[in-house]
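#structure-requests
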Amino acid sequence: MAEWEIKKTLGQCFGTGRELAVEEEYYAALVEGPEGLERRDFCAEYWQEHKPEVYCFWRTRMPNPEVKKQLFIDNEMLLAFFDRLADETEEEKVNFRFVLMLILMRKKRLKYESSRTEEGQEIWTVKVTGQDRSEEVENPHLTEEQIEQLSAQMSEILQSDLE
């Protein structure tokens, strides 16, 4: 498995360097960096004016450190991210998509249908709940430790408990 880490927000706009205010709405994005996926945060003004090229993004608010964190990640956003990774072949993204599939299965947004072996690779077929479509996902045969590590990284990226 490729080693990678996506950090929590630094609390400042990547484009302007300006510190983000408590409760300020901003855009968090994943971008292709020299070492893989990196998280970058952009203030709304910079985002609207420059429309930075990103892999995926979500809109959020700068947390208030005095208020207990109760962020909710929408299942549709997770499913859209899952779909976005469908054609990726890089090992870290294949691994990421597989763990995201497991999370979506736990949230009952995907349902396991079958698996097959094709050219030595195990392929799972999952049905998207409430939609007339199925998706195929490569099983990278991650260890339990690797799955836990990727789940923890996803939780940090999305600032959410993915239970």
